[in-house]
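REQUEST
  id: r-88c1
  op: predict_structure
  target: Metallophosphoesterase
  payload:
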Amino acid sequence: MTFLLLLGVPLGLGHLYLWRRLVVNTTHPGRARRIGTAAIAVGFLLLMSALVLTRRVWPEVASFLGWSGYIWLALVFYAALILGVAEIPRRIMLRRVALVPAGAPEEEPEPVPDESRRLFIARSFAIGTGIAAGGVVGYGMTQALGAPVLRQVPVTLGKLDAALSGFRIAVVSDIHLGPLLGRSHTERIVRMINEQEPDLVAIVGDLVDGTVEELGEAAAPLRDLVSRHGSFFVTGNHEYFSGYEPWLREVEKLGVAPLRNERLTVAGGIELAGVNDVTGKSYGDGPDFDRALAGRDAAKPLVLLAHQPVQVADAASRGVDLQLSGHTHGGQMFPFNLAVTLQQPAVAGLSKVDDTWLYVSRGAGFWGPPVRVGAPPDITLVELRSS
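RESPONSE
  id: r-88c1
  status: 200
  body:
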């Protein structure tokens, strides 16, 4: 019930706003208005069904609800955003076409626009909004569903032995296998990583949105990952929503080693550690930095895998040299990137917190709408360099 209230109320208000601007303001009472009203209502029902039912129905139905409901969500969001920005010019134009009776006193009520001109303005804004929102969402879908961008990011670590300079870590996060992304998505990611011949692969959380029974086959191509020093995985928040214990066993079967508040030495000179996601606290499986970093060799550089960038505060206080994270999706759909900064220390890319480097991937998948605007998916090759 709380979930429905938190999402249903604002989404309902958003649909009501669109109904008034796109249906009521552009039609006279009659058939056209009834059709428009029904379309808005059906869209709202599809969206709520996608949010609530995709894990409770057959895969085919979940796929239909996911695609239709989440695309509708993106259209509603951008249409409401565009209409909101257009409110001031819309009101100015309506005022300019208002008819003021000759000789009317100053205290006369607000002038009323001529009906034909009012309809023309309302319909023009509605059509423009539809074209703009459809264009943004269409572009965003090509970004979300296209191949991830391959990024190369050099990071200089003062403790790194010169013989290990050039060590490359393939970082991928937020793959989000689920009703909309399946086996072919995993195959493309694995192929892109293998083509780069990395020294190590780091999957930093949010691999799945569903159970092993539902998505085990979609994750299976991970067994084909190839690197010189292995593939490693840490939990994200969505693993805890999807049954983290079965998934930890499953990824291990696929040759990807989970790091559960653990550390090891790779390539003879790099300390690699991984901590559980902060969401794990609610499941009795939270992050434990002290356990993960116990016994480390302070003379060697320490690379930490941690799903959420916010965990860098604990990492920096313990002398971690580099933290690799995901979670933010780079905001996924502008302007959500502006909101990410309210919760996380970085949205995407390389930054520094005290003496700790922080790299945040935008992720290779998406959550919710299959749309990315201003935040293309990525796979990153982090190249460690000695000073």
